[in-house]
């Protein structure tokens, strides 16, 4: 795996790679659904988000509802499965945007990372972080770095002993370190997240 050889030049990542093994990035279908799932998961634990998403999917009599199917659901039904009014509104914003712009999985997979960020952050309720997660976990892009992610910030502060006076300085130092990981920054993020979730040995 080329990414493991490249990232192992960073001695800290080399230890994490040895502990955690490898990762496989997937290119998934039904991107609109994954974007809806990202909105559902905002500010929730993984476990709670999974429960609400499962209830959300039970509102439909098909496995992969289209944007049109989701728009047909009433606000009351969304509320009944645990969605706030704002999240229900954001999900409908996503679906309207996909319909109005005739977006398909094929079209989205052809766009660059920054083109996707620019396009999808036009949707109210979808910020840069949400699109970065989509790029990593749904579109399988290899070189995405989410400098604003709290988990990555905590992992890098701890592992790389980053000292900073403000958020701007922290972001600058994180990005400088991450430059060495190109073109495989997504994989580096996966190792850092896993470290935050369950450190296997003291670093």
TrEMBL record:
It catalyses: Hydrolysis of alkylated DNA, releasing 3-methyladenine, 3-methylguanine, 7-methylguanine and 7-methyladenine. This is DNA-3-methyladenine glycosylase II. Keywords: DNA damage, DNA repair, Glycosidase, Hydrolase. It is an enzyme of class 3 (hydrolase). GO terms for molecular function: alkylbase DNA N-glycosylase activity. Residues 40-197 form the HhH-GPD domain. It comes from Mycovorax composti. Its EC number is 3.2.2.21. Pfam families: HhH-GPD. The gene is alkA. The lineage of its organism: Bacteria, Pseudomonadati, Bacteroidota, Chitinophagia, Chitinophagales. It comes from the Bacteria.
């Amino acid at each position: 795996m080329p990414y493991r050889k490249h990232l192992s030049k960073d001695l800290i990542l080399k230890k994490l790679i040895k502990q955690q093994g490898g990762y496989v990035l997937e290119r998934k279908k039904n991107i609109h659904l994954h974007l809806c799932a990202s909105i559902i998961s905002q500010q929730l634990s993984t476990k709670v988000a999974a429960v609400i998403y499962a209830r959300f999917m039970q509102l439909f009599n098909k496995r992969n509802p289209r944007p049109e199917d989701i728009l047909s659901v009433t606000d009351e039904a969304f509320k009944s499965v645990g969605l706030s009014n704002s999240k229900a509104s954001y999900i409908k914003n996503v679906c309207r945007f996909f319909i109005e712009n005739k977006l398909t999985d094929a079209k989205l997979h052809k766009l660059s990372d920054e083109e996707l960020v620019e396009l999808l952050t036009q949707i109210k309720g979808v910020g840069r972080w949400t699109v970065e997660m989509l790029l990593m976990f749904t579109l399988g892009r290899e070189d995405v770095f989410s400098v604003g992610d709290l988990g990555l910030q905590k992992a890098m502060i701890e592992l790389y002993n980053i000292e900073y006076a403000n958020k701007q300085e922290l972001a600058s130092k994180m990005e400088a370190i991450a430059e060495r990981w190109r073109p495989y920054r997504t994989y580096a993020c996966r190792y850092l997240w896993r470290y935050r979730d369950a450190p296997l040995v003291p670093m």
